[in-house]
Amino acid sequence: MRDPIRDAAREAATPTPSAERASMRGPVLVYAEDSALSTGALHLAELLARRGGVNAHVLGVVRPVEFPVWAFVDVDASVMESGRRDALGDALRRRVHATVGLSGYFTVEAATGNPAQLLAEEARRRGSACILAGLGAHGGAERPASEDAVLQLLETSPVPVVAVPPGVAHLPTRVLVAMDFSAVSRRAAAAAIDLVDAGATVTLAHVAPETDLQALGAEGLAAIYEQGVAGLFQQLEASLEGRVGGRVETVLLRGEAAPAILTLAARGAFDLLACGTHGEAPAGRRFPGSVSTALLRGARCPVLIVPAR
Whole-model pTM? Predict the structure, then answer.
């Protein structure tokens, strides 16, 4: 019996050896803290910077003191804030050195303010290709807060944000892209390719509604849907041709988008999950993109999210 999900999965031809090798299209920006949470992001930044010959700028953020200590203690507020920035900057330089050793690709800075706003401004000023941020291990105590920090970055970021768990120490070789064929999901595919290692496999996955059109007597509509998805996959593969130094696969899944993608991600041992987010959060919700948020919270590998803007 024909299995439409299995039959929809197919591989594109392997690109010729002359295909352009993926590399960063600008400098890398790292949002770092002086903790082990940042080690994966620093490792990935070093690998990307070395491969592309670009700068990896580490930005640490000191939040303003909410309680006016200087009102009760004889201390200059500007001097105290400067001292806090200097201390964080020194700590981050030691963290970078301990994580990646001596590297000429890194610069380190500490600033005072709101992290999401500062990172967005710095990304625009530097023309950064992406922002890397630490992500707590799945199920760990640091995970929820790190997820929220990444989602806050996405509210203002003009570039893709990559959430990286601590254990990451190599460029991605198996990438899963959640594809709904919107412009933002296409950008997610392109951004993911910029991160991959030579010879990587990129899987484009589309999740179709659970409704069985054939069972409802709409066999023609089912065929139109499947053929339409196949055509969209072909168009997308053509647009990506020459940029992947390995293999492109496509797969059609059924069900709820986030659970279906997460199930495939776990089964396929992917080391990068990429998606886009759509618009602003609806009333009553703090963060945008229900599917992208669910993927971030459920993934066990690094997650690249492209903002809608």
Answer: 0.85
| Contacts of residue 183, Cβ cutoff 8 Å, sequence gap at least 6 | none
Rounded CA separation 176/264 (Å): 9
- Overall fold of domain 4-306: Rossmann fold (3.40.50)
Residue 198's closest CA among 247, 163, 132? 247
Q: Which residue has the tokens 């105590």?
A: 141
Domain residue spans of the chain: 4-306
Digitized pLDDT (tens) for each residue of the chain, 309 residues in all = 333 334 433 333 333 333 445 566 789 999 999 999 999 999 999 999 999 999 999 999 999 876 665 555 666 678 888 999 999 999 999 999 999 998 899 999 999 999 999 999 999 999 999 999 999 999 999 999 999 999 999 999 999 999 999 999 999 999 999 999 999 999 999 999 999 998 899 999 999 877 665 554 545 455 556 778 889 898 888 888 777 777 889 999 989 999 999 999 999 999 999 999 975 544 444 444 589 999 999 999 999 999 987
DSSP 8-state symbol, 12 = P
Structure-token pair, residue 196: 């991959």
